[in-house]
Specification:
The protein is mostly beta strands. It is built from 2 helices and 25 strands. The protein is globular and about 55 Å long. Keywords: Signal.
């Protein structure tokens, strides 16, 4: 990622304009400019998640990881200011958010991040960012191969029914066997208020080419997508109770320069919208229809490949809610080199999709 010895001013310049001398692809002249660039973290940003305020969306917050030993989780407001942080974690990688975990009869919003070098997931209540996991929950227990306990990607699936909801975390890692690369954990809480996790499923084809980091769940439609880096995006059912580990689609195989990275889902209706995939070495996002059908990977046709100012984007998230101010139709949040995250007014992205840019 970025050179840690580059001065702050130079890093911010890299974030917005790129660098040819560093060996990275430069930001395209027609790249979408960020509406907001966050304040910097200490080390190396990696993955964001959007927390929606329960009563006032304009007070929503952006959560992001600072991926290094000693790094942590940062909370930003919609102007990019750091409002809270937790540091001293052992290389936190990816993060996602769940709403309404039942803890002794109280509904609590939570953030779950992978703590890669500790071989744990960490759980924090929101928006106070207080740890509620007694120091962390061990993951990939019993695995012994190199990198097979190093948690990286994570995404949350919440299954709702007539009596409530069940929260699951789908976790990826640095390395693992094809067929059981991803482990799915049921999230709960004990009488002491400490969050727990139980393995309920192991699944996921892996090419062995690089790694699986970016994971995204379409909660309403019940699907999980993940980036098999340098190969493509794979789709599965998110509900472990289906007991169906059939790969439903495998797309984006020809559309990315090198690494398939962050995945964000922007919803325009109950079953419509877009899947956005970070084309990392191209400094762009490839856009696919959310409506792609199972058993037909060709239904995930490329709608656009949009150049952005974010450099080598690892992680991304999106929301279609009116967040007020600069984001009336929501936003795309993207990690960028330079220890920052970029917020893009969705209207800027939609304009490029409508034009079919880079198709």
């Amino acid at each position: 990622m970025q050179n840690k010895n580059i001065p702050t001013v130079a890093l911010l310049a890299l974030t917005l304009f790129g660098s040819c001398s560093s060996g990275l692809a430069p930001v395209a002249e027609n790249a979408v400019k960020p509406t907001v660039v966050t304040e910097q973290t200490a080390f190396d940003t990696d993955d964001p998640a959007i927390w929606i305020h329960p009563t006032d969306p304009s007070q929503s917050l952006i959560l992001g990881t600072d991926k290094e030993v000693g790094g942590g989780l940062y909370l930003y407001d919609l102007s990019g200011k750091i409002v809270k942080k937790v540091t001293g974690l052992q290389r936190p990688n990816n993060v996602d958010i769940a709403y309404g975990l039942d803890i002794n009869g109280k509904k609590v919003d939570i953030a779950i991040t992978t703590e890669r070098k500790a071989h744990k997931i960490r759980v924090f209540s929101l928006p106070d960012l207080t740890p509620i996991d007694n120091g962390g929950i061990a993951i990939f227990e019993g695995e012994r191969g190199e990198g097979e306990q190093d948690g990286m990607g994570i995404s949350i699936y919440t299954k709702k029914d007539s009596i409530g909801s069940t929260i699951y975390a789908i976790v990826g890692r640095k390395n693992g066997p094809s067929g059981t690369y991803l482990w799915q954990y049921k999230i709960g809480a004990g009488a002491d208020g400490i969050v727990t996790a139980e393995v309920v499923r192991k699944f996921g084809t892996y090419s062995g080419k690089k790694e699986i980091e970016a994971i995204a769940v379409d909660n309403e439609l019940g699907y999980v997508y993940y980036s098999d880096e340098t190969v493509g995006v794979r789709k599965y059912y998110a509900d472990p109770e289906k007991k169906d580990n059939t790969e439903l689609a495998f797309f984006a195989q020809q559309d990315v320069k090198s690494d398939h990275e962050g995945i964000a889902i922007y919803k325009t209706g109950d079953s419509t919208g877009y899947i956005l995939l970070s084309n990392q070495q191209n400094n762009s996002f490839v856009v696919y229809p959310r409506e792609g059908s199972n058993g037909n990977s060709n239904s995930y046709t490329k709608l656009a490949d949009i150049p952005v100012s974010a450099i080598e984007c690892d992680g991304a998230d999106a929301s279609s809610l009116n967040l007020g101010g600069k984001f009336p139709n929501g936003m795309l949040v993207a990690m960028s080199n330079g220890k920052v995250f970029h917020y893009y007014d969705w209207n800027l992205i939609q304009e490029r999709i409508d034009k079919g840019e880079g198709k």
